[in-house]
């Protein structure tokens, strides 16, 4: 077993928590998410012609006239009982308003002022926050005239924009900056280097494994799994607040929502994703967009937390998601939620691990954390497991130790015959981490059979203590100088 020592690593500051927060609110389908995407400068929030697409608050950074702000897209304001889905969505929007230094109250200029606009405008005035009135969908020559009707809401002069066509956004950004509190005096901050590439060979050449400091910045985590596995409840428990909309209804989360949290000096960027169902069951355009956002979040992550409902065991769709994690080369932590409802825990845990080891050899040794996101029991064990998985994902093995092991592996089981000739595998090196990737050089090395590659990968995993992360093994043959081809 290799001696794994956790190195000190610099953590880049995450300034977004200290930036002014601006919340976009309004009734459903007035174009809040489209406006949000325009102001942050990229398609970050899901947009569709269906009312109520946005359910959870979504944050993004926007730069306006040299000022960087936190912009929050919220769910549409609707009158509903607190225990209903729409009531929970409204409570989330109200929380964003309480934290904001400025509220953008958005209306649909084409539809005119509705009773719902009047009701929620009166509510916003009572919140004690500065409010700007934004008349969206005011494109064309008649748009500005239609926007003037919004004066009746008593929120001051409306700013006419068309988020879909990009009209009036420059004036809006100028007004937003004018309404922000004064910018604080700049402080000295840690300057990052342009590139981060640890010098592995400069470290102890006799060490079995080297765990270099990872690049500065937060550890990026994607929480993935099937619908109703408890992903959003888990994120709320980690944050200690009701940040995400939760409930018994499956598929509540539609968009990928990123939040930042701190733990023991580390910074984590955690993305809650929409539940992934079998492709055959995905028929709505909106769900296809949600799945695409989830997969994109997984590609950007360092560690994927695969959440399973422990009371249901491993479903075929769980295995498909695990295969996706392996294919994307992410580190993985298996999170068994609802553990408090499991009766025979030893048998359940073993059954899940056996199913994974049979169906997914690359997931062998994946760290497993059992907890109850609803009660919070044992959730504190998750982030340490994520740290450990991230360190393994960043692992680099010195070339000397690697080739000493390679020679011993060849002696134990010689390279096989291919077309009657034995392969001459000469040496091995690690070309990259994240995930650990190795290359074998030798005569006709590219003809190495898959079963022999699996033998070498299993040996690498066991000898250098690389559990639960994908290991890439490539081969590169030498060219015969006398060959005419």
UniProtKB/TrEMBL annotation:
UniProt function note: GTPase that plays an essential role in the late steps of ribosome biogenesis.
Entry-linked InterPro entries: G_ENGA, GTP-bd, GTPase_Der, KH_dom-like, KH_dom-like_a/b, P-loop_NTPase, Small_GTP-bd
Protein name: GTPase Der
UniProt keyword list: GTP-binding, Nucleotide-binding, Repeat, Ribosome biogenesis
Gene: der
NCBIfam families in the cross-refs: GTPase_EngA, small_GTP
Family matches, as PANTHER family: GTPASE DER
Chain residues that bind GTP 1: 26-33, 73-77, 136-139
Domain of life: Bacteria
Residues annotated as binding GTP 2: 225-232, 272-276, 337-340
Complex and partners: Associates with the 50S ribosomal subunit.
Family assignment from sequence similarity: Belongs to the TRAFAC class TrmE-Era-EngA-EngB-Septin-like GTPase superfamily. EngA (Der) GTPase family.
Pfam families the record matches: KH_dom-like (PF14714), MMR_HSR1 (PF01926)
